[in-house]
Write a sequence for this structure.
């Protein structure tokens, strides 16, 4: 608001959230900023806390979840917190045999390949399966004050890719093979993943999350035609299933330059943009009815300070034409990133004159 003292921290300390305003396309007095993977290995305080605790176990310990989520909020004064969890947490919670291997990512013991694998492995998720999520979000909301918490889930295609491939994949060959070959299994699998993702989001919002982000990280591996036919309907189901909760819905993927219009059309209020497409091109594709989030290349944090500032300013300048702009990186913070560089970036974004 305009009577906020000039030296007041910009983060989330205002009474109405700048982040939520930008998501809704309302007027803001500064450009809000947060970072995907702002919590995690780039922070020494995170590495210390996580010592000896496996990733997925850490997600079930509310005290740890609250502390890890808060770490970047305290350090950087970002305008939003992102819930510390993982896209595979709801799958683990319904009993899928999987683990997160450091340096690799999610690894699934018995990959899903036929329709007979779907039902026994993937039952519906209920809120009672993830009591630690509800407890963690409640704890966070009271700790965060007016800084909004973003809840999230993995989108059906990205979750399916891990379940079918058994782990990370470069070409998603097995996933697409099943998609083309076996429409009934595909529908059973993505339909079930859509309801799981929707429940996971609803649990977080009911516990106090103020926005949600649907991560379809690997959707960029698809042509637009295939995205529309095989993937968009299931992402839409997830986004539609939380529409009544009245929180902004962010929809993000990597390498999705050609899909941005469709990803917005799936039911997003905000479309996340990676760095491979310029924000001005992204605006043209997303249209004027939605806000955008992004899109500085995460490796720019390793550039000299003046280069970083110039590139961030270019993103901010392009964002002026958006209905609303949430500053972010084009994908997650790289583990080797210097936290001081991220702090300088937050200060630079907050100092940018919006009027
Ligand atoms: O600040 C945050 O963003 C924290 C919450 C968060 C994590 N994972 C924590 C995490 C979020 C939003 C995710 C989502 C996620 N997980 C996605 C979608 C986002 C994206 O990156 O596109 C995906 C694809 C995953 C699957 C996954 N989990 C990967 C690829 C990895 C990295 C593996 C590695 O070691 O490089 C994980 C593990 C993971 N999830 C870590 C964190 C902080 C690292 C775990 C560690 O500390 O060892």
């Amino acid at each position: 608001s305009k009577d906020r003292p000039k030296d007041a921290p910009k983060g989330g300390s205002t009474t109405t959230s700048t982040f939520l305003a930008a998501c809704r396309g309302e007027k803001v007095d500064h450009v809000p900023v947060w970072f995907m993977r702002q919590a995690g290995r780039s922070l020494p305080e995170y590495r210390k806390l996580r010592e000896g605790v496996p990733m997925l176990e850490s997600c079930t310990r509310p005290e740890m979840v609250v502390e890890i989520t808060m770490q970047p909020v305290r350090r950087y004064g970002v305008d939003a917190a992102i819930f510390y969890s993982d896209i595979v947490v709801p799958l683990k919670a319904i009993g899928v045999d999987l683990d997160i291997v450091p340096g690799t990512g999610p690894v699934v013991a018995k990959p899903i390949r036929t329709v007979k694998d779907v039902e026994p492995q993937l039952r519906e998720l209920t809120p009672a399966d993830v009591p630690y999520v509800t407890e963690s979000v409640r704890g966070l909301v009271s700790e965060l004050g007016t800084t909004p918490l973003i809840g999230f889930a993995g989108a059906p295609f990205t979750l399916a890719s891990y379940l079918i491939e058994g782990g990370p994949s470069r070409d998603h060959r097995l996933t697409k093979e099943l998609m083309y070959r076996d429409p009934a299994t595909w529908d059973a699998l993505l339909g079930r993943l859509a309801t799981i993702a929707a429940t996971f989001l609803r649990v977080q919002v009911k516990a106090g999350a103020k926005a949600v982000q649907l991560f379809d990280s690997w959707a960029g591996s698809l042509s637009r035609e295939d995205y529309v036919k095989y993937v968009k309907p299931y992402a839409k189901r997830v986004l539609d299933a939380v529409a009544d909760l009245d929180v902004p819905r962010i929809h993000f993927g990597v390498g999705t330059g050609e899909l941005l219009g469709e990803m917005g059309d799936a039911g997003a209020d905000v479309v996340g943009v990676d760095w491979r497409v310029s924000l001005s091109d992204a605006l043209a594709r997303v249209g004027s009815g939605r806000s955008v989030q992004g899109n500085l290349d995460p490796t720019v944090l390793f550039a000299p300070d003046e280069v970083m500032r110039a590139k961030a300013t270019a993103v901010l300048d392009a964002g002026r034409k958006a209905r609303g702009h949430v500053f972010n990186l084009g994908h997650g913070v790289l583990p080797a990133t210097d936290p001081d560089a991220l702090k300088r970036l937050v200060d630079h974004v907050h100092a940018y004159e919006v009027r």
Observations:
- Residues 183-206 form the longest helix (24 residues).
- The beta strands are 81-82, 98-101, 105-108, 149-154, 211-215, 249-252, 270-272, 291-296, 325-329.
